[in-house]
Amino acid sequence: MLRELKTDPRFYLFGSRSKGFEIASSDWDFSAADVPANRKFLEALGLYSSDGEYAYDDLTTTIYIGVDDGVCIHVVLHSNETLFRRAWEAITPDCYEHCISKRSVQFISQQKNERKRLIRERMNTAYAMVRINNTREIGYLS
């Protein structure tokens, strides 16, 4: 499952592993366009749709999850994958660590739902910055 996702160009690595903050227990986060072929492929690999369990932003349509050799895998499907990738690439590692990562010190005292809300709002802000202003580097999100 993981090997297939890592080698298929339709699936884009993001999350802590893409920003250099992975730890031994880090899951694997991928994104892709929400098209029937991708859903069928993910289901054939044994992943399942986990609607509503995670922080959905304006582009997220569903999240597929699975486990491969004890490692958790998330595949986030987006209505506009191009915009998602542009925004993710603009977010600096420092911005990720301090403003988006669920392990950020900003979120230590936050309840899970509040943390989800803040991450969702910050990702939506990143999309707007890229879409409207063609921002190429995002160093901070509030």
Question: Which terms would index this structure?
Answer:
142 residues, alpha+beta, Beta Polymerase, domain 2, five-stranded mixed β-sheet, globular
Reported by name, the CATH topology is Beta Polymerase, domain 2
Count of DSSP H/I helices: 6
- Spatial separation of the terminal alpha carbons: 36 Å
The level-1 CATH class: Alpha Beta
Short description:
Helices cover 42% and strands 20% of the residues.
Would you give an account of this structure?
This protein is α+β, with helices and mostly antiparallel strands. The chain has a single domain, classed as Beta Polymerase, domain 2 (2-Layer Sandwich). Helix content is 42%, strand content 20%. The chain has six helices and five strands. It has helices at residues 2-7, 16-19, 36-45, 81-90, 93-100, 112-133, and strands at 12-14, 28-33, 48-49, 60-68, 71-78. The chain has a five-stranded mixed β-sheet with strand order 1-2-5-4-3. Helix 4 (81-90) packs across helix 6. It is globular.
